[in-house]
Every structure is written in C-alpha cells, then in structure tokens.
Design goal:
The chain is α+β, with helices and mostly antiparallel strands. Helix content is 18%, strand content 30%. It is built from five helices and 16 strands. A six-stranded mixed barrel has the order 10-14-11-13-12-15. The N terminus is likely disordered.
C-alpha cells in the first residue's frame, strides 16, 4: 500500500525531529520530597507533609503515632545522679556523668544558653538551649517539635580518634563519650533524644541516644555541616558504613514514655 508507506515515513521523520528536539532539552524530573523516601530501600512510607522550620531542620506535620517506647526509671541525668542504665527493645544504654574537667568532644562550641559551656552543663541549661559554634548561633527545636521529627540525609561518624587520647571526653550535655556505644550528635534535637537511624543503602536500623552536638562545618570541609547526624564509631559500625565514612540515612525520633519502677 504505497499511500500507507508514504504516511508512515512522514510520521517517522516527524517523530525523529521531535526526538531530536527533546534530546536538546535538560531533563527535569519533579518529585515530591517523600517520593525519594518511597524509592529508598529499607525505608517505610512516611505519612505527612514536610515543612522547613527556620531553614535548618524538618519536622513532619502530624501527631505522634505508632510505637511509644516505655523506659523504666529515667534516661536523663539529673542532679545527684552519676550513672543510669535503661533499655529500649533489645538495646541497652548506659549513661555516665563526665567530670567537668574533661574536654568536650566538640571544643569548637563557644557558649550554651549565653554561658560558658561547662557552666551551662553544670547548671543543667543544655537540653534545647541555643548555642554558638565558630560565631554561628544554633537554635534547637522544642521538645514538642522533636516528637514529630524525621529526615533523610547524609550521616557521618566520629569518635574513634578519642580512643587514642589520654583521659576521657564529654558530650555537649555532660555525659561520658564512649565511641563504642550507640550514641549520636545532632545540631537541633533536644539532648537527650532517642532516634531510630536506618541506613538506606543496606536496610540496617539502629536506635541511638542523641547526646551531643554536631556535625559542624570544618575548615577543611565546609560541606560537612550539611550532614544531618554524626554517629558514634560503634553505631556506624553496626549500620555498616565505618569504612565508607558516609551513608544516606533516614532519622526518626522514637517517642518515649517514662514510668517509675
């Protein structure tokens, strides 16, 4: 059928021109933020809409649902206590108060709540108090905001170097820093806060205690401040990225309820 053959040829030529034109355009794919989470292995669906708070961190606009973890006793050092132990699921956390003369893991912290760092720790004015690092003021989220916090981003790890130094180190809220324990540093979460961290590259998950501040931009790598969490060496090892150094993770606050006995 000559007519059909001729028409088909015209269609092919026009499609070829159209394909060439499209090839010259930049490829733009618009996806909602939570679509990236849905495409990530090992991550469950996150309900709710993200919004940016002061351009620094994200919380999800929804009420707290799902599992509320019960902790017997306490999980925060108070006046007169030097050591406490508690469990969340299969994980055991040991918290020890550090001597005030010990150096901080992040000595670049200049002030907390307008006070010298050690004085703020001594007075217990740390939990979600504003603090200054290298001249920049950070304002942590409230306890209420933290209950609905979850975010996807890059995690790093720190602390192995402290094992080669004499003496001990303290976290930003005055606890003994143990690089082998399951702990983490976060710029904006109240101290302490429990979070579940999932390595989106291998599906491994872990509950950690946020008891320190960081990660902050360094002189050698200003982009390091864009990482959303800094895990201890032990936590990074459990999640499988010690050798790599960085991992794409999902971080979500674990709601806790304290009961006596």
């Amino acid at each position: 059928m000559p007519g059909f053959t001729k028409a088909s040829g015209m269609v092919r030529r026009r499609f070829s021109h159209l394909r060439g034109a499209l090839a010259s355009l930049p490829l733009i794919i618009l996806l909602p933020l939570n679509a990236f989470l849905l495409l990530s292995p090992g991550c469950s669906v996150i309900k709710g809409t993200y919004h940016v708070v002061k351009g620094t961190y994200r919380v999800v606009k929804r009420t707290v649902t799902g599992t509320v973890w019960v902790i017997k006793g306490a999980y925060e050092l108070t006046a007169g206590t030097t050591r406490l132990v508690y469990r969340i699921g299969k994980f055991t956390f040991t918290v020890v108060r550090a001597p005030l003369e010990w150096p901080l893991t992040h000595e670049e912290i200049e002030t907390i709540d307008g006070l010298p760092v050690k004085e703020a720790i001594r007075l217990g004015r740390v939990k979600n108090a504003p603090y200054v690092v290298n001249g920049r003021r950070y304002v942590p989220m409230t306890v209420a905001q933290a209950q609905t916090y979850e975010e996807v981003g890059i995690a790093s790890w720190y602390g192995e170097e402290t094992r080669r130094k004499a003496g001990g180190h303290m976290t930003a809220n005055g606890e003994v820093f143990d690089p082998r324990a399951y702990t983490a540093a976060h710029k904006y979460l109240p101290l302490p806060t429990m979070v579940k961290v999932t390595n989106l590259e291998n599906g491994r998950s872990l509950i950690v205690r946020v008891n320190d501040r960081g990660p902050f931009p360094s002189k050698h790598n200003p982009h390091s401040g864009k990482r959303i969490i800094d895990l201890s060496w032990g936590a990074a090892k459990r999640l499988g990225f010690v050798e790599k150094g960085l991992a794409r993770v999902h971080v979500k606050v674990i709601p806790v309820k304290l009961v006596s006995g």
